[in-house]
């Protein structure tokens, strides 16, 4: 406590100092810029920025005059490039950065803004309501989407969770086994064929998987296992799992490959078997990369749209028991957007945006988590603690 | 000191133990493959071999594997077979066997004690503990064979004497589906043979460290073999099913082409599925030309939008901007956006771009949305490629008194080009197969009868916005979208194909386009990498 | 890059011809007859190694006796590490490497089919030129080998039943670290990640890791290259002590070190040739070949 007190007293002073430093630095930068840059180049910079801002504003307003600032931009850029190439190049790259960042921000902001009406109507119930209170006989999981102005995402969240879980259970263990096989077990010849092969597989469009799922897998389960509908969470999850496999294998394999050869040699040179080396040295050293691969695969599975859209029944509700993966229910966050987005409006559309936000947040979390573990691995192998 | 056998450098000659293990592995492989044949419906479950139904044969196979494992385990324990087992199979093996035994016990309880189903939990726990102890307490040779053997023999005998046959079904309360013996048996046998091969693989190398390696390799090898098999099958399905549709009416020299100006007709390759319209009155063999052209325009638009922006931003972030919080945030955000579901981008396009640009589905919005999707990837890969250019080269150029921009232009960018190109090609492969956002912002009629005429569509006027392009502002079709609309539309308008047939054909063309792009991308990466290492 | 220009090399060859009046063949003949009383621990016969099309070792033959120290010296890039890696078949891991000839350990050919590499490497341990500790704790690095070979039981079950060899493990770690002259520096942080050690400490850790496995033959690739004089002296003591029971093969760039610790010395010269091999004293005091004398006295290399 006693040590803390003087510090708290110092805070305002420090804050003021920091602000002053920042202002000072900005001024310095501006002076630098003035003295370094020719007047013409400054004019060009100004013109370029002004025209871009006007372009954006008039586009936002949906104006037909948007073309004018675009022409101004092109002209000033063209003249600038001819006269002051270095400055023009710098301003172009800065501009592309600003545009890229603002597009990305715009997407996020727009998703959030558009989902506001649904959130305002439903509040937290959007994510938690499992019975529709306005119905005479509120059954579990029934009438949650659009009946009496109730829009709850719970059935879709359950669907996404179930299909993602099934897909992960398939893709994670088999994918890791595949990565270990390719990087540690397979003879060189086999590896040189299998690795690019698996990378190619990662490129097969999801609609193709969906088509196979629809015509073959769904039929198989319907005919052989007597599922109540053609299309179940299990069949979709299975297909998504197979689809995510190549991603998991590729990323995890890269991670295992990145473990330095000298460490592997060190283990082999004191007489541990190759499997012991893999299990006790390579996999622990590459673990964060492997888990990054798995997280990425989970993200893919969660965001998978087309295969699920064509395979699932688009009936919303809770199976009973919840883990009955062969029920007649079938809708996920992605499929509901793809299936209904084309002709939705009002709160319905806003609810779809809310679904998009939920998806986005989940996938973003997974992505950040995977980047974090990968960064940890980098640190670890770099020798820093 | 270690014994003589432990000290041997060269592998010993094969012994009876090896022979038995090899036999078990052989039977396991055959049974494994046979159960896949049944699962894939290539062999009917009612088929018989030498008077025995295939299902019963699978049971016999399992029982034989189990018997072989008993021989090995007991033989090794009483030193009839020369092995070097560790003192225990280890906790992980014990846990796996414990769980397997618990499942077995639980299932048996639910099936046999129908009146007292509540008992299943205690029975399962008892079985689990027994399984765990049985695999952990004895030496490795017994602990990793007999517990497996017991399961396999039990299952095998039940199947072989017909206790579970093709007609038998299990319909648990908690599932809407029911599990017929005809499917359940092969599935269980697949797992059973994997276990058996693992155990026999260990035994073949005499247990110990090398035995564990062999067991693990057999297990991983079979799993990966099955995985590659399934992935290969998927592609095989598309090719075999799609080939006939795609080749309908195609011939190498059947067509006629009139040479302009001369008026001469020469033989010419004919490929109606690729070159015909999908709909329309006078089309005999419907094709995917509109979709093909649509995909082409989408890719061109997306690339010309995303590539300059992405590369420019990458140059700024790596060369001009100070490395710090800002660049880090941008990096994390772009990585996140690259894994954002495509449908989310579609949603954005629908709500933001459509009303401002075309007021309905259109090519240009499709291009922009796919461009947005491509943008993060271009940024990531070109940033990586630029970062990979060693600082020494920049310094070398700067030391010669060359300005920063000239250094970037003549040193950094050329060196970063290969990585960027590879990344862009792989990204294009992904967006070319992308469907979800197109449903919302792009797609038009399911069976288009005209190809979009983008080049001829420009119109100039004195009114703002001065330039318009009707074709760019109208909806069109693309290969993945075509596949989707064929699947979901009701009946195919022409008699020559059914919906499914046309779908397989489209899927094949789509696969060729996308996988072709990927192959170019992967190939160019290999090429550049090899070139780099030879330097 | 080769250390001597081709023209220079012919000059030297001529010079040798004039000064000693001997041909290359006769010198070679002189030292290949060099024999030990006992059977060789490692017998290398006509060993050729190629990396792609480049030949890194040219028909090398030499016998390594038991219970002694053999030093390998020679200019950088002459194939010392390559030779060392051939002795426990670590070269098998290099994609482009191709090996011809034979190496026998206790009379058993190690390059024949069906040789158990694991068993071989348990018996022929190796310390690499670059330290390569595992990204694990110091303790785990040392006990890794014995644990994997089943000499130490520290598994989950053993720990549960209280039958694990925790004490033996500790004793073994301490013994190995003491012998490698690292114990005093790390005894308080055995649980820390080994990557946090300094380069020289890492090198001694790798030596300790190799000792913990208790091999018959120990191959060391410049074990003292990153060490201060005190640690170097300790490692030299260790090597001499090891030579009482084991066969030690050491690569070194330090002539004094080679003459101090080794019983016999092999001199490789650029191009992967074994130019001379014999009793250390004899090599340093009375080399047979002019090139070796030039190298030892520092005229080149
Ligand atoms: N992995 C490899 N691939 C290709 N060539 C190699 C490889 N390792 C070594 N070489 C080549 O083989 C020759 C001998 O290399 P080696 O590492 O055995 O030399 P060295 O005597 O240990 O040198 P130093 O004293 O510098 O460690 C060198 O010319 C080297 O370029
Ligand atoms: Mg070396």
CATH-defined superfamily of the largest domain in chain A: MetI-like
Low-confidence stretches of chain A: none
CA distance, first residue to last residue of chain C: 12 Å
Secondary structure tally, helices of chain A: 15
Q: What is the ordering of alpha helices and beta strands of chain C?
A: HHEEEHEEHEHHHHHEHEHEEHH
CATH class placement of the largest domain in chain A: Mainly Alpha
Shape of chain C, please? globular
Ligand names: adenosine-5'-triphosphate, magnesium ion
Q: How much of the residues of chain A is beta strand, in percent?
A: under 5%
Average pLDDT of chain A, rounded to a whole number, is 84
Helix content of chain A: over 70%
How many helices of chain C? 13
E-strand count of chain C: 10
User: Going across the major beta sheet of chain A, what is the strand order?
Assistant: 1-2
Question: Overview of this structure, please?
Answer:
The complex is a heterotrimer of chains A (385), B (535) and C (301). Chain A contains 15 helices and two strands. Chain A is globular and about 80 Å long. Chain A is 77% helix and 1% strand. In chain A, α7 runs antiparallel to α12 (274-303). The longest helix of chain A has 37 residues, at 346-382. Chain A has helices spanning 4-36, 39-60, 67-83, 85-114, 116-122, 125-128, 154-185, 188-201, 206-225, 233-258, 261-269, 274-303, 306-311, 333-340, 346-382; strands at 145-147, 150-151. Chain A has two domains: 10-114, no CATH class; 136-381, Orthogonal Bundle (MetI-like fold), CATH 1.10.3720. By secondary structure, chain A is mostly helical. With 535 residues, chain B is mainly alpha-helical. Chain B is 66% helix and 5% strand. In chain B, the strands form four sheets. A two-stranded antiparallel sheet of chain B has the order 1-2. In chain B, α2 (54-77) packs parallel to α7 (181-204), α8 (208-247) packs across α18 (499-534) and α11 packs across α13. The longest helix of chain B is centred in the middle third of the chain and has 40 residues, at 208-247. Residues 1-7 of chain B have low confidence and may be disordered. Chain C has a domain at 25-135 and 214-296: P-loop containing nucleotide triphosphate hydrolases (Rossmann fold, 3-Layer(aba) Sandwich). Chain C contains 13 helices and ten strands. Chain C has a six-stranded mixed sheet with strand order 6-7-8-3-9-10, with helices on both faces. Residues 1-33 of chain C have low confidence and may be disordered. Chains in contact: A-B, A-C, B-C. Chains A and B meet through α4, α7, α8, α9 and α10 of A and β4, α8, α10, α11 and α12 of B. Magnesium ion (MG) binds at residues 80-81, 129, 221 of chain C. Magnesium ion is lined by residues 80-81, 129, 221 of chain C.
């Amino acid at each position: 406590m006693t040590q803390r007190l003087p510090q708290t007293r110092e805070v305002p002073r420090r804050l003021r100092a920091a602000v002053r430093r920042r202002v000072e630095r900005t001024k310095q930068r501006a002076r630098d810029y003035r003295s370094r840059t020719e007047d013409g180049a400054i004019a060009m910079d100004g013109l370029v920025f002004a025209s871009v801002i006007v372009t954006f504003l008039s586009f936002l307003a949906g104006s037909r005059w948007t073309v004018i600032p675009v022409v101004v931009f092109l002209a000033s850029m063209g003249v600038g490039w001819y006269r002051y190439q270095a400055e023009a190049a710098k301003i172009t790259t800065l501009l592309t950065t600003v545009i890229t960042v603002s597009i990305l921000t715009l997407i996020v902001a727009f998703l959030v803004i558009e989902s506001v009406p649904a959130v305002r109507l439903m509040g937290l119930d959007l994510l938690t309501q499992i019975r529709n209170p306005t119905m005479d006989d509120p059954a579990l999981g029934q009438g949650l989407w659009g009946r009496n102005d109730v829009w709850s995402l719970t059935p879709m969240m359950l669907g996404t969770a179930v299909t993602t879980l099934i897909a992960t259970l398939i893709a994670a263990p088999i994918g890791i086994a595949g990565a270990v096989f390719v990087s540690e077990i397979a003879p060189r010849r086999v590896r040189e064929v299998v690795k690019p092969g698996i990378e190619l597989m990662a490129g097969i469009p999801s609609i193709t998987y969906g088509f196979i799922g629809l015509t073959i897998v769904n039929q198989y389960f319907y005919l052989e296992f007597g599922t109540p509908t053609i299309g179940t969470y299990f069949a979709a999850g299975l297909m998504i799992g197979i689809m995510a496999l190549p991603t998991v294998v590729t990323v995890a394999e890269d991670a295992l490959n990145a473990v330095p050869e000298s460490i592997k040699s060190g283990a082999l040179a004191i007489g541990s078997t190759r499997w012991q080396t893999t299990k006790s040295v390579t996999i622990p050293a590459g673990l964060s990369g492997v888990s990054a691969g798995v997280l990425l695969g989970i993200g893919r599975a969660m965001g998978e749209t087309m295969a699920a859209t064509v395979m699932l029944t688009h009936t919303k509700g809770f199976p009973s028991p919840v883990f009955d993966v062969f029920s007649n229910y079938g809708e996920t966050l992605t499929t509901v957007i793809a299936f209904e987005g084309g002709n939705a409006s009002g709160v319905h559309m806003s609810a779809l945006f809310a679904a998009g936000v939920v998806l986005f947040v989940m996938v973003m979390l997974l992505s950040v988590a995977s980047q974090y573990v990968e960064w940890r691995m980098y640190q670890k192998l770099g020798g820093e603690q | 000191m270690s014994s003589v056998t432990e000290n041997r450098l060269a592998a010993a000659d094969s012994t009876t133990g090896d022979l038995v293990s090899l036999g078990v592995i052989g039977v396991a492989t055959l049974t494994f493959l046979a159960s896949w044949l049944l699962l894939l419906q290539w062999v009917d479950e009612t088929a018989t071999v030498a008077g025995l139904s295939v299902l019963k044969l699978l049971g016999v196979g399992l029982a034989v594997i189990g018997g072989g494992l008993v021989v090995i385990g007991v033989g090794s324990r009483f030193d009839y077979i020369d092995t070097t087992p560790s003192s225990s199979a280890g906790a992980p093996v014990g846990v796996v066997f414990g769980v397997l035994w618990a499942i077995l016990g639980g299932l048996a309880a639910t099936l046999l004690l129908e009146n007292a189903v509540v008992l299943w939990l205690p029975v399962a726990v008892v079985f689990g503990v027994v399984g765990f102890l049985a695999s952990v307490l004895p030496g490795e040779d017994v602990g990793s064979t007999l517990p497996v053997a017991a399961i396999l023999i039990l299952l095998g005998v039940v199947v072989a004497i017909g206790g579970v046959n093709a007609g038998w079904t299990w319909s648990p309360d908690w599932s809407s589906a029911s599990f017929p013996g005809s499917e359940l048996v092969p599935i269980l046998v697949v797992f059973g043979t994997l276990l058996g091969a693992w155990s026999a693989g260990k035994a073949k190398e005499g247990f110990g460290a090398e035995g564990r390696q062999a067991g693990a390799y057999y297990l991983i090898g079979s799993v990966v073999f099955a995985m590659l098999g399934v992935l290969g099958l998927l592609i095989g399905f598309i090719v075999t099913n799609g080939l006939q549709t795609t080749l309908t009416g195609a011939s190498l020299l059947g067509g006629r082409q009139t040479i302009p100006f001369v008026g001469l007709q020469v033989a010419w390759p004919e490929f109606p599925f690729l070159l015909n319209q999908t709909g329309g009155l006078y089309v005999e063999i419907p094709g995917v030309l509109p979709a093909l052209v649509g995909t082409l325009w989408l890719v061109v638009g997306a690339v010309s939008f995303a590539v300059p922006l992405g590369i420019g931003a990458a140059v700024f972030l790596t060369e001009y901007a100070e490395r710090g919080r800002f660049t880090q945030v941008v990096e994390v955000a772009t990585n996140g956006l690259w894994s954002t579901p495509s449908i989310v981008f579609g949603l954005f396009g629908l709500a933001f771009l459509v009303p401002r640009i075309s007021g309905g589905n259109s090519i240009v919005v499709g291009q922009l949305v796919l461009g947005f999707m491509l943008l993060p990837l271009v940024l990531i890969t070109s940033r990586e490629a630029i970062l990979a250019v060693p600082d020494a080269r920049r310094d070398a150029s700067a030391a010669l008194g060359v300005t920063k921009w000239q250094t970037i232009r003549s040193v950094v960018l050329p060196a970063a080009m290969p990585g960027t190109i590879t990344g862009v090609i792989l990204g294009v492969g992904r967006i070319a197969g992308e469907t979800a956002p197109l449903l919302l912002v792009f797609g038009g009629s399911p069976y288009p009868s005209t190809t979009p005429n983008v080049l001829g569509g420009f119109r100039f006027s004195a009114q703002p916005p001065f330039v318009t392009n009707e074709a760019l502002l109208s909806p069109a079709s693309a290969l993945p979208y075509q596949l989707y609309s064929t699947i979901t539309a009701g009946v195919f308008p022409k008699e020559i194909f059914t919906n499914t047939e046309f779908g397989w054909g489209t899927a094949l063309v789509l696969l060729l386009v996308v996988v072709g792009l990927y192959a170019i991308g992967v190939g160019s990466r290999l090429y550049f990498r090899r070139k780099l290492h030879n330097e | 890059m080769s250390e001597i220009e081709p023209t220079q090399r012919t000059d030297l060859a001529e010079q040798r011809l004039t000064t000693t009046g001997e041909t290359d063949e006769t010198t070679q003949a002189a030292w290949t007859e060099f024999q030990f009383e006992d059977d060789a621990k490692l017998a290398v016969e006509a060993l050729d190694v190629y990396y792609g099309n480049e030949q890194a070792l040219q028909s090398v033959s030499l016998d390594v006796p038991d219970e002694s120290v053999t030093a390998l010296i020679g200019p950088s890039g002459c194939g010392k590490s390559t030779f060392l890696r051939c002795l426990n078949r670590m070269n098998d891991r290099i994609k482009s490497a191709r090996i011809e000839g034979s190496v026998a350990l206790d009379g058993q050919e190690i390059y024949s089919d069906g040789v158990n590499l694991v068993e071989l490497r348990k018996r022929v341990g190796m310390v690499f030129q670059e330290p390569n500790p595992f990204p694990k704790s110091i303790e785990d690095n040392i006990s890794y080998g014995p644990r994997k070979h089943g000499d130490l039981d520290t598994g989950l079950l053993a720990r549960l039943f209280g039958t694990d060899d925790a004490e033996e493990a500790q004793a073994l770690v301490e013994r190995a670290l003491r012998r490698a002259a690292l114990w005093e520096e790390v005894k308080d942080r055995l649980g820390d990640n080994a990557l946090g050690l300094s380069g020289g400490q890492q090198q001694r850790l790798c030596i300790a890791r190799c000792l913990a496995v208790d091999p018959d033959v120990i191959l060391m690739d410049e074990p003292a290259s990153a060490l201060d004089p005190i640690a170097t002296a300790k490692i030299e003591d260790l090597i001499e002590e090891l030579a009482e029971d084991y066969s030690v093969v050491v690569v070194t760039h330090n002539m004094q070190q080679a003459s101090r610790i080794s019983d016999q010395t092999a001199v490789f010269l650029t191009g992967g040739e074994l130019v001379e091999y014999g009793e250390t004293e004899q090599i340093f005091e009375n080399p047979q070949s002019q090139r070796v004398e030039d190298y030892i006295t520092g005229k080149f290399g």
